[in-house]
Task: structure prediction
Amino acid sequence: MEWKEGHAKSITFIVTKDCQLVCKYCYLVGKNISERMSFETAKQAIDYILSNKDLYSESSVIWDFIGGEPFLEIDLIDKICDYIKIQLYEKQHHWFNSYRFSFSTNGINYHEEKVQNFIRKNHNHLSIGITIDGTQTKHDLNRIYKSGKGSYDDVARNIPLWLQQFPHGGTKVTISSPDIPYIKESVLHLYSLGIKEVNINCVFEDVWQENDDLLFEEQLIQLADVIIDSEYYKEYACSFFTEFIGKPMDKVRENQNWCGAGMMLAVDAAGMFYPCTRFVQYSLRNKKTAIIGNVHEGINQNLLRPYLTLNRCTQSLQECIECEVASGCAWCQGENYDAAETNTIYQRATAICKMHKARVRTNNYYWNKLYRKLELEGQRENFEKKETSVIC
Amino acid sequence: MLQYLVILLDDTSVSYCHYENPKKVKRLISLSDLKAGILFAMKQNLMIQFVYPDYEIPAEYQKEIETIDHHKIAPQKIQLKNADVVVFNSCKEFSTEKTEENKDKIFVLRANGKDVARNVSTFAHDGRLNIIITDIETFTENDFSLYKETLEQLKNTVKEIFLQENSPQVNLLTDRILLEKMNNCNAGIENITLAPNGKFYICPAFYLEDENDTVGNLTNCIDIKNKHLYKLSNAPICQKCDAYQCKRCVWLNRKTTREVNTPSHEQCVVAHLERNASRNLLLDLQQLGAWEDKSIKAIDYFDPFEVKDKF
Result:
């Protein structure tokens, strides 16, 4: 479960745009080795944020570090985190002792001494996710070095150490068209490595081929059967199967935006502020970057207004508003912007539509099968109570 | 649906709204495009608004214009006798006009906030006056305070004219009293602009900012991408707002927030200062027995964005 259930402010430092890998599905189309954040820029960003408590009134904060690969800049990150801690204390800031440092890493240099020292130093305030896509075949299909070599072996060797330090660590799996045949075996492989929480999602980009939805459905049905028949559901989670998706949504009561762009804040090496990292130029294929301020002049609040007033209906097609399986159908504001016909964040990209519908069908199958099994075993009531307590 | 076609007769046609026209080189619309524009309007059942430059246009153009029902928007400088809308580009220009002789015309006064503040006492016009504040996007807290005082003075002037048993209309104060729902510019929805290059634009400002920002031409007609974003129903802040007199300028919105459906903080505060001044005028007039059937409720905010979670 996400720390503070998503109510914390998320502030992202793009410390480098370099990475050891060139993953085929990576949305970062403009990675490079030259844009590295300086400590001075990070310091200016922190000073601005901590000096404007009225703009950042959330009770908690997640300081997120991404790249490229963030651990390539572990010395800088260590210095930044020390500065944050000192400033929170000196300013008697309300985030003091209510903060997290968060990392999504490819895991390749997780074992290195500097990284491990950093982990020991900040362990109680850390969230670290290592991205591993599943079986070696599936992982190495996409997550490759610049030489073309797969990275599975270099990541998998660090998984035991990571799980020892973060036993509840979850991983994020991204599905694109070529990955579909490997979904079932990949999730089961991750379970076998001891990873109990697999967060998995289809990319939002328009990459889907004809019949991908049917292949996807077939994979998920097979996965559902194994999870239920082998009773993985008792200890393991796969985010594909969530009971509360695939329902119609009320236009008034359920009109919230899905994405947190604008509620979040990202800063890059040049000291520019963005509504999230997906609006940085290296993430955009078709559109110009959407800068909303900089560390010297602060945030232009007018440029934030569209993000903070976005809701589901104003950016959706009538077909989406009236969709009978609308709930759980996600979108990424950055992809919406990048794919839109005009320079707007108010045009919802719908490339994921058929994949969501396939997911809903298998999700219905999963819960119907699971509940029938539990009913026959006399376990349904206990299970429902447990599920409800988790949700609340 | 579309109701109006704005035809800019020349690149130097007068601005009658928030935008500035920086073009100095004359470029008259071709006669063939003018004819095609008129034919388009006739087929689409659109009322045409011809926007004039500050020089006399050729006789064959004048003849063509008179072939269809229309409105003429012209700069004060050319003293076009049969203009429906006369545009003044400063308070100084406005002060020299013999307004009594032109009570049937709509006057548009374009001026910045400070110019209006300095000259508001001279605005005693018993007719329709549209005041366009041209520097809203740069307003600071001090400018808001000054504008509030300006509107208070304007309110007293309007009240005085009412007391003389006249019926002045000043967009900033009387429109909100008379309106019961939003009455925005609606560029892209109710009106569209044909520029001198023979192409369609959302409004003249879009043309003057970038000629490539076109939404069609006379051959292939109009194709507005994301057209729904110009509608009130797709404007999250504005759809809940009751500053009905606000023009909700989509060009200014895009300039300040990058989205045509989202107004800036400055736009919202200015519109609410006008709304509240309208309410004060209404309360004053109701004490005199006028407009007793109208009401504008008291509110405790100037920018709906700040109370968006309560909507």
Remarks:
- Chain B has a mean pLDDT of 94.
